[in-house]
Structures are given as structure tokens and as C-alpha cells.
Automatic annotation (TrEMBL):
InterPro entries: FERM_2, FERM_central, FERM_domain, MyoXV_FERM_C, PH-like_dom_sf, Unconventional_Myosin_ATPase
Protein name: Unconventional myosin-XV
Domain of life according to the entry: Eukaryota
Transmembrane segments: none
Gene: MYO15A_3
PANTHER family, sorted: MYOSIN VII, XV, MYOSIN XVA
Pfam families: FERM_M
Residues covered by the FERM domain: 1-219
């Protein structure tokens, strides 16, 4: 994944949980470092302005501290990232955000769904670990379905009086299956992303099965 693919999701704070109150000092330092790395990745050698700092910090965090305070902390981190070239700054940024829980996910905004255990509207993050339904404000995971439990997905035309198509996802094993209906704008894209991850999971499993026994233990 490149910086340009990851950055929009990072700036919407989709890769981790948004704290309800003030972020901890450790969290603030991490966000300041990531802001400094973004600034350096643009090959900027001068110190960032208030506006530039604001553009490099997810708005959900930015609003929890004063602008001047953010500028001060990011400026402190600039001295550490200054020796890096833009390529190194991009690599370091990606290295840090790759540890975030939802790194590498595709995100979908779900308008409504048929499951009473999941509050909607919400955000659905799809990655190799499965389908994660996140609270739309805090991005806390409410419910997770492992990829191996997804039996099938299909799109349905919008019902009369409704503007969005549905996606039906069958979840469970052969003995216990349930269908969850999701209403969202990017239904076809959601089915495509789930299919891609399932294909990767199956091909990885096949590779493991075809390796000699000594190799399997190493995995």
C-alpha cells in the first residue's frame, strides 16, 4: 500500500479507535510524529504552518487540543524527521500506521442493516481478518465475523421507495447460517472486496496444504 492509498483513511481516523475525551500524551505524540512525517514526505524543509499541521492531523483528534498546542508538538517532531529524505519519511509513516488495528482495510458506510445486534448507520471494515462493524463515531469494533464464516454475498436491487441497493451476506457454517442484509451505496464494490479476500484466504490455505510437513510447522 502506498502513502496516497492509506492517507485518506488515516485522516478520517478510520484505522484506529477515536478516544472520547482528550487523547493521552503518548497518542498525541504519535499523531504529531505522523503529521511531521507527512510534512517531510512532501519534501518540505521549512517548519509547517498552523494550516499545514491541521491538514496532517485527523480532525477527530485536532478538535481535542488547541491549534497552537498541535503546532508546538508537531514542530518538536520536525527536528527528528528533518534528516530523512521524502522517501524515508513515507516509509516511516507507513511503518507506523501499519500497526494500527484496521490498516489494510477497505471501508464502507452502511446506511442500515437487518441485524439487531449491530447499530446502524455504521462503518464496515473488510480485511484479511474478516468483516468488522465499527461504531460510526468512535470507530470501536461492535461485531466481527471471520472471513471463513462468510458463505456468500449477493447484491439486490433497491426496493421501491429506497434509493440504495442491498447486499445480502450469508454468514455461519453449514448447520447454522443467517443472512444479514446491508444497505449501502457501494454494494458491488463490497462484494468484490469480500470475494478478493476470500480468494486470497483460500489460495493461502491451499499453499499451506501443498507444502512439505517441515515447512508447515514454520508457518
Amino acid at each position: 500500500l502506498s502513502l496516497f492509498q492509506v492517507l485518506p483513511d488515516y485522516l478520517k481516523a478510520l484505522l484506529g479507535v477515536v478516544p472520547q475525551g482528550k487523547p493521552s500524551d503518548q497518542h498525541m505524540q504519535q499523531i504529531a510524529r505522523l503529521a511531521a512525517l507527512q510534512h517531510r514526505a512532501k519534501d518540505a524543509i521549512y517548519l509547517p504552518t498552523l494550516r499545514e499541521v491541521q491538514e496532517c492531523v485527523p480532525s477527530q483528534f485536532y478538535s481535542k487540543q488547541g491549534s497552537q498546542q498541535w503546532l508546538n508538538v508537531v514542530t518538536q517532531h520536525m527536528q527528528y524527521v528533518q534528516p530523512l529524505n521524502p522517501y524515508q519519511a513515507r516509509a516511516q509513516f507507513l511503518g507506523l500506521v501499519s500497526a494500527f488495528p484496521m490498516f489494510g482495510s477497505s471501508f464502507f458506510y452502511i446506511q442500515s442493516l437487518s441485524s439487531s445486534s449491530i447499530q446502524a448507520p455504521c462503518i464496515l471494515a473488510v480485511n484479511l481478518n474478516g468483516l468488522h462493524f465499527l461504531n460510526k463515531d468512535t470507530h470501536d469494533a461492535m461485531v466481527r465475523f471471520p472471513l471463513k464464516e462468510v458463505q456468500s454475498t449477493r447484491t439486490q436491487r433497491p426496493t421501491s421507495g429506497s434509493s440504495y441497493p442491498y447486499v445480502e451476506i450469508m454468514i455461519g457454517d453449514l448447520l447454522n447460517q443467517r443472512i444479514t442484509q446491508l444497505q449501502l451505496e457501494q454494494g458491488l464494490e463490497l462484494c468484490r472486496v469480500i470475494a478478493m479476500h476470500m480468494e486470497n484466504m483460500l489460495s493461502f490455505r491451499e499453499k499451506r496444504l501443498t507444502l512439505p510437513p517441515s515447512e508447515i510447522t514454520l508457518l
